[in-house]
Amino acid sequence: MKDSGFPAVIICSTAMRAARLVVTDEFLKVYFARPELMPPKDACAAERRLHRELLADPRRPVALTRLPRSPMTDARENWQFVVAFRDLLLLHPTLEAAYLALVRSGSITLPPLFVNQLVHVILRNALERLRGSIRASRCRVVLPAAADHAA
Asked: Over the range 98-126, which residues count as b (16 or more CB within 10 Å of their CB) and which as e?
């Protein structure tokens, strides 16, 4: 199980006086370092290079033509989803705004895993701010490994 990445997104990232979550480079780097985003041992050089470049500069523009042309179409499609998700986050001022834009669009083309991960980070922020009987410091939002979602 993996942590939601909340500590990386919350670092100097409150906005609009309502503790909204702004995407930081560190958050994106933590996201790109997730095990399910690491290139597999048999990945092509282009896929490995793209991953290295995104870890070094997570806001780096990525043209679809730069995506790895792997013999396995899954690899190319996976990177298209990853880049689309990253671009969605960077297009909006906060994670909450990105989520609202996504669900209000009426056309969610990202895999559910990406939406779930976004919701986990937003929920963690809401729990952190909760007062009373629920203490966010005792809660830990975890994300299942990608293999848990394979069906």
From this structure: bbeebeeeeeeeeeebbeebbebbbebbe
d(CA 21, CA 25): 13
Q: What is the value of pTM for the model shown? A: 0.74
Helix (H, G, I), strand (E, B) or coil at 71: coil
In 3-state terms the chain splits into helix, strand, coil percentages (rounded to 5) of: 55, 5, 40
The 8-class DSSP code of residue 93 comes to: S
pLDDT tens column, 46-63: 888 899 999 999 999 987
Total domains in the fold of the chain: 1
Per this entry, what is the length of the chain?
Answer: 151
Phi, psi of 118 (to 5 degrees): -65, -45
